[in-house]
Design goal:
The protein has four helices and five strands; from the N terminus they run ββαβαβαβα. It is α/β, with parallel strands linked by helices and about 130 residues long.
């Protein structure tokens, strides 16, 4: 499987998706479904980091998948941070942001995983208790 999802912290506030080399939309949506299941009992805000390790671009028909991608967004998700992928991915994401409308404010891009963690640390609100 070239798309993996896992909790990235013991408090279950960061959901990490890792995309290796070439991947398919079916693999992405299978992992996204698993991520939705993993967050079903969560009642506090979570951050999603997509570690886009590949520089191979996206699978074909990316524009056709944009609407489906936004359907995984829910009120628990504070922010989706796409990390890496280079300027080609950033160009595609900028188009996605334009098409996504109001929900686009819940997505951002950073150049690497360290910057993604720094962004979460800067925005995170401590959990109660």
């Amino acid at each position: 499987m070239t798309v993996r999802v896992q909790w990235d912290d013991p408090d279950h506030t960061i959901l990490l998706y890792t995309l290796d080399c070439t991947w398919t939309w079916d693999e992405m949506f299978e992992a996204a479904d698993k991520g939705v299941e993993m967050t079903a009992d969560i009642s506090y805000p979570i951050y999603v980091i997509v570690n886009y390790k590949s520089m191979h671009g996206m699978p074909p028909k990316a524009f056709a998948q944009f609407k489906r991608i936004t359907q995984f967004m829910n009120a628990k998700i504070e922010l989706v941070i796409i990390a890496g992928g280079g300027t080609l991915l950033l160009s595609l994401l900028n188009l996605f942001f334009l098409l996504a409308g109001n929900i686009a404010s819940k997505y951002c891009w950073v150049s690497d995983l360290d910057k993604a963690y720094a962004m979460v640390a800067a925005r995170r609100v401590p959990l109660p208790g």
